[in-house]
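seq as requested:
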Amino acid sequence: MKQRSSTKISLKWIPFLCISFFILGTVFSNRLWIPTIFNDCDTKKLYCVLQKPATDNDENGEVLKTHEAIESLDKSFAMLQIKLAPPGSSQKMKNSDATGAVSTLAGIDSPRKKAFMVIGINTAFSSRRRRDSIRETWMPQGEKLVRLEREKGIIIRFIIGHSATSDSILDRAIDSEDAQHKDFLRLEHVEGYHELSAKTKTYICTAVANWDAEFYVKVDDDVHVNLGKLAALLGRYRSKPMAYIGCMKSGPVLSKKSVKYHEPEYWKFGEEGNKYFRHATGQIYAISKDLANYVAANQHILHKYANEDVSLGSWFIGLEVQHLNIKSMCCGTPPDCELKAKAGNACAASFDWSCSGICRSVEKIKIVHQRCGEGDAVIWSALF
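struct tokens:
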């Protein structure tokens, strides 16, 4: 009987002994056991670093792995923020280093207005006569311009940035002209011939910030446009996602510094004498809403090449873009566009390839309008 009692007493102390040994082991090892959270150590590196204690030999290596894993996660989150940024987030881009605009008819701080298409006419400080020739031909003025926006959802603006000198005589001249015509979209961009790629990016971002349009069009100020034909043409592609519309080309990459369209980064395109990838010629092109939103959301990581049309085309490489080659957007001047107009197939845009626009456009654009124009009434009856 005494022996049995002794056995019971010893068994009673077993739990206390176990707890004591556990506490002593923790104190002497100075480590706590961390349960395994994930078994897949290849895909969950951060948790695998935490799930087992580091020894003296591999402690520095494990800390480095942890740091690298955190850096990788940070980069992934940053990229996701850029890619998933909603189009509306660019409305406040006035505080950004890339865009911010002042428009007389649509302010940057007002809610985005719905539109069918936004047409930005690229112009320069020295091009007042070109702008006036467009106002006298294919671009409505005054109340008609406002009505075109209200009834047809077509916004037309001359796009221009600022001079390098704050409040210069050039800027004041544009301010005065805008006060008279109210047809400018001012960009947070310093004007310069070698900055056209940056200007195009800023224009797209600013237009997206101001208007929720189905298409965004860029045209040079020495090109003639038939608005009704252009609107009807784009209307055919409203249901097509990722539409990149224009006259597609693939010109040579020019490596010589002495030529006009020299590409300093020619080496990126392979051996000397190679051609560019397919892209729309820069005189006029249109992109659909989703492509414009893509540019606005990713503006800070889109590379700019020397030539503006090449830059735009490069931004869409790797995307499921539909390259729509529309010859009606690159007709020649009379007799080419005139013959097509007489046949009932007016051109959407006309210019001279030899001049990358209408040669001597100030004088000649009026002739093109008379002989190739669709008539001022067409845009008001156009269905799109």
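Residues 205 and 333 are 32 Å apart (CA to CA).
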